[in-house]
User: What shape does this take?
Amino acid sequence: MRDYKTIIYEPGPVTRIIHNEPERNNVMGAEFQAEFLDAIGEFEKNREAKVAVSLAAGKHFAAGHDISNLGKKQTWEKGQSNQWSEARWRSVCDPRKWVYQLWDISKPIVAGVQGAALASGGQFVMLHDVIVMGENAFIGFEIPRVSGAAGGDMQLWVGYHKAFELACTGWNVGAQELHRLGAINKVVPDAEVESQAMRFAEIMALMPLETLKLTKASLKFGMNRMGVREMLWHAEETNILQHCVGEEREKEFYRIMKEQGMKAALEFRDGPFEKYGYNRHKATEI
Assistant: This one.
């Protein structure tokens, strides 16, 4: 087990993995992903560990990928092709390097979610086995308004029509709605997210380890027979293709970010939707 920079790893029968970058709103960066996979690998190997709890320090659970860093990696100039080739994007977005590794973990993982979980952060939440969310927590997919495709795999959890709404409007969906749709397990007061996630894990940890693993394997077998792995793959495929196209609105978004800063870029992205009641800081009705 190595020294971690982005997470706190607390092994035990109920193992805790805490994303600890609150100053960056717990962005889903490459370093975090590598460290989380390393920690979850340690959890898998530990025979004393039965259940993992995934938490995050600070106001938000996960801010999605680091779009400010993404803006530096591409040309994003009108009339010019992106610097990254399709092969490069396929390497970065290969589901075998992140999504499949989370999906295939053999032991239960509980998520305790507060604040926002955006784009890839929302996908990260849904790959957990039990999800506890604070009453003001939400998942959002705003970034497809300018860059990439996201949320296609949400239909696995919320159904086709709601997933279509989220992916094609960029709207946020709140914890209560996700619970009503059966996508998460419990909604609790914001101050109780960690304790209630731990309670779920402690109850499951009373079960025999092989019961937990075999039950999860059986349920995942059924999900995979219904096409989950293919859907997860295709969600990444559509995201890759969108980035390779690099539409003019996407390039304008990153140009504004470089020249005027993140606040101006977000206003460019989200401003047209605000007159319909959109608020990037919470879930609202469409």
Observations:
- Residues 95 and 106 are 17 Å apart (CA to CA).
- The mean pLDDT is 89.
- Residues 228-245 form the longest helix (18 residues).
